[in-house]
Amino acid sequence: MDGRTNRPGAAFESDAILYYPHIEFFSTDWLKQVLTIWDRVYRVVPSSYSPDDADEVREAVDAGLVVDLRLTQEDLAQVSNQFIEFLDSLRWRPDGLHPRKETSRIHEEKIDARLRPLMRGLCQKVSADEWLQLPREIADGYMLFLAEVVARRRNLPRLTDDPDLFTVLQFYSSDGNISDFVYDREASEFTSALTMEALIPSGIRHVPMRTVLEFRKQSAEGRMQFRSGLATLAADLAEIEDPQFARERVDMFMNALRSAPEVRNNGLRVFGDHFTSMLLSVAVPMALAAFSVFALGAPFDPFRGINIVDSVVIGAVAALGQAGLEYRQGWSPSKATYFLGLEGEFGNEHKLEAPQFCRRMEEFIND
Asked: DSSP class of residue 296?
């Protein structure tokens, strides 16, 4: 894309993604859109559970594009150890981790044997088919931590269709290193969301899955260029500290970002000439200096969102704590978290606006 294939992350072209936190997909249309970007979607499925998939999802499963990932004992052991250590190490516990009345389900096979007694003690109901009904905050917290460990051990980025869980996972990904003052505009480091508007033909929702699968055979290069361009952009944003040097980098990967979607969208015209929007966000840790590259005037507010090019916007999710620099320097595209939303989730048809993930983080931290 830009010739910098030797620097860490520049050639990162992850062809697979880990879907979390659910097993079934809430929308077949959403899955079709995912498959125009990634080659395979992994999901965590207990060995004794048979997913209740729609017919079109089963077509993708049979084609090897949706892959059931079975947890190993090492997965469970690491999640158990690190989840407990993580909770014990918190300087303060976010309001969102205090149990309330809403509940969520977790299958017992996703919990290490050592942790099951604790979880059973917290659950409100145990069903006959090994599902635990837990307070939603506890269940979501554990599942996010499970996604973090499973993805790290397999070097997979993560993808969700839930904006709340996308936001909260940034808390776990940074080892809880989120400032309790989420909107600290003077912080030197932030976790941020890079959001872009990708054009998807509206007709893709009305064609059968087999047509999407056939199209994929003709669009492998476009998908690879798109993923590589986005990963390179995210990797560069995480590294930038010097605003003057950053301007040169920005121009380089902006050209790459503009060219990759064009390749994909030309191929997508087989589904029709009417296009709709798909909002794709990726979480990236950034230095405050990097935001100043994109700000046209002063003062600027990283939490309001800054348009860095047409249909691409960056906005802070939360201020990082004192260890933010260490987290940012250790970040790579394989640690990325993605959110994909269907048309109308954010913004409007006239101007792309930064998703307000920061408000969701504020609710999680301080309610």
From this structure: S
CA–CA distance, 213 with 315 (Å, rounded to integer) = 34
Tokens for 63?
A: 């084609």
CA–CA gap between residue 80 and residue 115 (Å, rounded): 6
Question: Could you tell me which residues come within 8 angstroms of residue 364 by beta carbon, excluding any fewer than 6 positions away?
Answer: 94, 95, 96, 164, 167, 168, 171
For the beta carbon of residue 224, count every other beta carbon within 10 angstroms: 15
Write out the two tokens for 44: 């965590």
CA gap 39, 27 in Å, rounded = 18
CA 277 to chain centroid: 18
Query: What gap in Å lies between CA 143 and CA 172, rounded to an integer?
Result: 11
d(CA 70, CA 147): 13
In angstroms, the CA 110 to CA 148 distance is 13
- Annotated domain spans of the chain: 189-366
For β-strands 337-341 and 275-287, DSSP reports them as: antiparallel
CB 154 within 8 A of CB 70: no
Q: Which ranges in the chain belong to alpha helices (H)?
A: 28-34, 55-62, 73-89, 116-122, 136-154, 163-173, 209-218, 220-239, 243-268, 288-294, 324-329, 357-366
pLDDT tens column, 187-241: 889 999 988 876 565 566 677 888 888 888 877 877 887 788 788 878 888 887 7
For residue 94, is it left (φ>0), alpha (ψ between -120 and 50) or beta? beta
Q: Distances from the Cα of 204 to the Cαs of 37, 72, 182, in angstroms?
A: 14, 36, 39
Phi/psi at 308 (5° precision): -100, -15
First-to-last C-alpha distance (Å) of the chain? 43
Which has more pLDDT, 289 or 87? 289
Closest CA to 153 of 231, 84, 79: 79
> Cis omega (within 30 of 0) on the bond before 21?
yes
Cβ contacts of 138 within 8 Å, gap of 6 or more = 97, 99, 119, 122
Secondary structure class of 253 (helix, strand, coil): helix
| Structure-model confidence comparison of residues 241 and 4, the more confident one | 241
